[in-house]
Write a structure and sequence with these properties.
The protein has about 750 residues and is an alpha+beta fold. It folds into five domains: about 1-90, Phosphorylase Kinase, domain 1, CATH 3.30.200.20; about 95-280, Orthogonal Bundle (Transferase(Phosphotransferase), domain 1), CATH 1.10.510.10; about 305-530, Rossmann fold (3-Layer(aba) Sandwich), CATH 3.40.50.300; about 535-610; about 615-745. The protein has a five-stranded antiparallel β-sheet with strand order 1-2-3-5-4. Strands 10-11-12-9-13 form a five-stranded parallel β-sheet, sandwiched between helices. Strand 14 and strand 15 (about 595) form a beta hairpin. Helix 23 (about 610-620) packs across helix 27 and helix 24 packs across helix 27 (about 700-710).
């Protein structure tokens, strides 16, 4: 490691102050003027792309923040195959280290409140700059032992987006620090991550400082996630003031809506505690959140009017996963639960509620989606789902991977190549497999279906039930429907729940999907259907009132308008409210303490009641370059990647990523991995650090993709598809063309 240090020729290195599996941190001084600095290096000589993204993100986020409460980055130096981050040294040590060194007599409530108030102010400043830290913990909070000044560090995983969505990942690779992450950061809460996620992590931090232990002390990652999602922190044994305990519990509420809504509201309550403590050495109970007003227009993500449907879904999972609740008695069965309803009615959101019990049963949840513009690709949704599962498995330990290898090979025998041909990631688990005899037509499909059925059974067991969610079944190809029929009719299968969502207004009695489901039902498989209706005015009024932070009566005029325009469709209703706010018709009234809509002016507007037209109108307000990129993305599919867009747009990755950035900020496009952050402020020359970058995105909803596609003139659609196909063909090496034949066609 000394060679690395010497290569930073402008700095004189003194001592190592932090040594972890990923990074090394040194104290040093600049040779020019002897300014004290902190130098942070990546430990690995060949860091992964994700490590580079996170390391660089610290600098990208913090370099334009001139805040007293953060450690200022001074430079980002190229170092070997990665970076070195140079930061100011204000003489701080971590809060964890500081409290370890304090004697029990010195751990005073007054000192805690002084520190907590400083932290609340820093978090407020970060949130005002639209930054979600996402990794607040004692190790990332520094304090100068002499001056008691506090600063926050480490923006590795911080986000500049107003909200992030988290996909299911293996517990070992979840972003953040598992003991401190919010329930929504686990990806298993059916909620997005916004700035209020930081309040939960802050609550865990405060709990640990005040009690000397973490709220949840288990070392089992799965159990820890379960605790964050469902368990209340234990009552404190110490004689802490009730108000202080309640502040921590409010910060650690499971749902973001029940936490503090602003860091200033938290700071006000902490200052109130400090004044009382300094005056009387006690803190009398008071109502929390008196000054807790958010300046963000937030539409709640909780479900309205879906309690019965969610209950039916959870019952289905319990029947499959818990043998005692299954009609089979001793053994979990297989079951299909279908969720039907119009586009935007909330089918996916209802299905995602099954995440919580899956964690409890240590199960796997995987999902795939058929695409309205890619109906010619066989098995696409199933392949998507199982590629997702392979990703989860590949982040498990070597010992676990070896177990999976043995089980999979036992199931597929010498025919592993058949599965690898459609799920390439499987080869990383079971190794290269021998070629299989060539079969044609129905013989090849029958072999694949039989093998895939055995392959699925490997993952559906009592120890880890398997839930497969297939979305938009109305667009399924015939091969996928045949596979679904075979898998679910297999008497050997158990501990398997197949959840399917489809638009019931787009199918009819003789539709291939309905015919397949009829055959499955006749084979004796348990098959139930939940049909979601539009929200009635009462439930819609609850949504509007919660959004405006006002009473039901005050919300009613706006609710009536929203109901008239959207007919109670939840997706359209939330986008409609968001549109009114963005156009300035909904604003916060500080005199009454809630959001108000200028109903007189809004009623005069000619607002469409067609959701695709409405979303197309939103897209028209984006810059021209962003609109052009979204048109191309809509042709590619609901999910798309940066590399493909670069080929079809004939621009650089940096340029295309910058065109997409505003669509990400508006929440119209969602990144599927954190690698998108590499292109925030990236210069073309920095691309030399990495050979290959993979950044995947997806449209917020089919209706957004449809709206983007509608921006292409009808007369140009065929030519656009042809141009995309030709560009992809010319940029695909000959040996890869067969593998990507359906994408090209």
């Amino acid at each position: 490691m000394n060679l690395t240090i010497r290569s930073l020729s402008d700095y004189k290195i003194s001592n190592l102050i932090h040594d972890s599996s990923r990074t090394l941190v040194y104290r040093g001084v600049t040779k020019v003027n002897s300014q004290p600095v902190i130098i942070k290096l990546l430990r690995s000589e060949f860091p992964s792309f994700n490590e580079l993204v996170q390391f660089r993100n610290q600098y990208t986020i913090a370099r334009n923040l001139y805040l007293e409460g953060i450690v200022q980055p001074l430079a980002l130096e190229r170092e070997r195959n990665g970076y070195a981050l140079i930061m100011e040294d204000f003489g701080g040590i971590s809060l964890a280290e500081y409290y370890q060194k304090l004697s029990s007599d010195a751990k005073d409530i007054s000192q805690f409140l002084d520190i907590a108030i400083q932290i609340a102010e820093i978090v407020y400043q970060l949130h005002q700059n639209r930054i979600i830290h996402k990794d607040i913990k004692p190790a990332n909070i520094l304090i100068n032992p002499e001056t008691k000044q506090v600063k926050i560090i480490d923006f590795s995983i911080s986000s500049l987006l107003p909200k992030e969505t988290r996909t299911i990942q293996n517990y070992s690779v979840l972003e953040g620090t598992l003991a401190y992450i919010s329930p929504e950061q686990t990806g298993r809460m059916n909620r997005g991550i916004d700035y209020r996620s930081d309040f939960y992590s802050l609550g865990v931090t405060f709990f640990e400082i005040l009690n000397g232990v973490l709220p949840f002390e288990t070392t089992d990652p799965m159990e820890l996630v379960h605790c964050h999602i469902t368990k209340t922190p234990p009552k404190s044994d110490s004689q802490l003031p009730t108000a202080l305990v309640d502040i921590v519990l409010k910060l650690m509420a499971k749902n973001a809506e029940d936490r503090y809504q602003s860091a200033l509201g938290l700071k006000y309550d902490l200052e109130k505690c400090l004044r009382q403590w300094q005056a009387k050495r006690k803190i009398e109970y008071f109502e929390l959140g008196e000054r807790d007003i958010s300046d963000r227009f937030l539409i709640p993500e909780k479900l309205y009017g879906r309690e019965k449907e969610v209950g039916a879904l959870l019952d289905a999972f319990n029947r499959v996963a818990i043998p005692s609740q299954s009609p089979l008695g001793k053994r979990g069965g297989s079951e299909i639960m279908l969720v039907a309803g119009f586009s935007g009615i909330g089918k996916t959101v209802v299905v995602n509620e099954v995440h919580k019990p899956i964690v409890r049963q240590r199960g796997y949840f995987i999902k795939g989606k058929f695409d309205q513009f890619q109906r010619n690709i066989p098995f696409s949704a199933f392949v998507q789902a199982f590629r997702d599962l392979m990703g989860q498995l590949l982040s498990e330990s070597d010992a676990q991977l070896e177990e999976w290898k043995v089980k999979i090979l036992k199931a597929v025998g010498e025919n592993g190549k058949v599965i690898i041909n459609v799920i390439p990631e499987l080869e990383k688990i079971i190794g290269e497999q021998p070629p299989v005899p060539e079969l044609s037509g129905s013989a090849a499909q029958n072999r694949f279906n039989l093998l895939f059925s055995k392959f699925i059974q490997v993952f559906a067991t009592e120890n880890h039930p398997l839930v497969i969610f297939i979305d938009d079944l109305q667009w399924a190809d015939s091969a996928s429907l045949k596979l679904m029929q075979l898998v679910m009719s297999d008497v050997e299968s158990g501990y398997l729940l197949l959840l399917g969502a489809y638009r019931d207004n787009e199918v009819f009695a003789a539709h291939p999907l309905m015919l397949s489901l009829d055959q499955i039902a006749k084979s004796g498989v348990t098959l139930n259907t939940i049909t979601l209706a539009p929200l009635n005015q009462k439930h819609l009024n609850n949504l509007v009132a919660d959004t405006l932070s006002c009473g039901a009566q005050q919300a009613l005029p706006l609710t009536e308008l929203v109901h008239q325009k959207t007919k109670g469709n939840p997706f359209f209703a939330t986008q409609f409210l968001k549109g009114l706010h963005e156009d300035g018709w909904i604003s916060f009234n500080f005199d009454v303490g809630y959001w108000e809509c200028d109903m007189t002016r809004v009623r005069e507007l000619s607002l469409t009641d067609n959701v695709v037209e409405f979303m197309a109108g939103r897209l028209h307000k984006l810059p021209e370059a962003t609109q052009e990129i979204l048109k191309l993305a809509a042709c590619i599919g609901n999910q798309f990647d940066l590399g493909t867009l670069v080929v079809v747009k004939e621009k650089s990755e940096v340029q295309v990523a910058s065109y997409l950035w505003i669509a990400l900020q508006e929440g119209l496009v969602l990144p599927l991995e954190e690698t998108y952050k590499f292109f925030q402020g990236t210069q073309e020359k920095e691309k030399a650090l990495v050979e290959e970058t993979s950044v995947r995105y997806k449209f917020l909803h089919d209706r957004v993709q449809q709206a983007a596609y509608s921006l292409i003139a009808e007369s140009e659609k065929q030519a656009t598809h042809l141009k995309i196909g030709r560009l992809l063909l010319s940029n695909t090496p000959e040996q890869e063309r067969e593998e990507k034949i359906f994408d090209l066609v």
